[in-house]
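Quick one: examine this chain and its backbone structure tokens and tell me how the chain folds. Here goes:
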Amino acid sequence: MDTPVDTVVRRMRALDAALHPRDGVAVFNRVYLTVTETVDRYVDTGRFADRHAAITLDVRFAGRYLDAVAAAVGDGRAPACWRPLFQFRRHPGVRPLQFALAGINAHIGHDLALAVVDTCRTLDCAPAELEDAFDTVGDLLVSLEERIREDLMPGPDLLQIADPLTHLLGSWSLERARDAAWTAARALWALRELPDIAGEFTERLDTAVGLAGRMLLTPLAEPPLRG
């Protein structure tokens, strides 16, 4: 029987089929599809201590990304953290690795904290009760980061050291972003009875993550001249 995660996987596969392979959103979507398929296997093989909590968190988490895509395609307005990726998705001077990490930055830096709070409200639990699922998904993402970098930025080590992309991406860390997301989730949960302050905190978080995403998408090559 299909789980809600299976439904998310199907939606991501449909999105992958609909997008041009070099579209920046498609680059991130392929990365995230790999992560979600792995989470689905973890659910099926009992890797999570609390299966229901893990599924709920994963679906709430993925839903924020899919909602952002729908908003960008339709008449809505995507969160600030996602706008740089949508704005630069076809820029010829932005490399695939930049697209992938800009998407991860938006999803981890902003969406993950909100997904934890969404899940806590749904399951009527505190963030501490989701820590196992959070850590398992986070460890999976961190373990994939090196492979993502190698797949999307191949080449001799010497060239990588000299490449400006190496220096640009050296300022961002998925592991630090994950830790910050957990802190933000706990802060938002603590502020749940203070909606005005929680709303302001969320807005500032969205803006800050969007600024980091814009820097990650700095074009590093001039567009080719048209003949």
In short: The first helix runs from residue 4 to 18. The two ends are 56 Å apart (CA to CA).
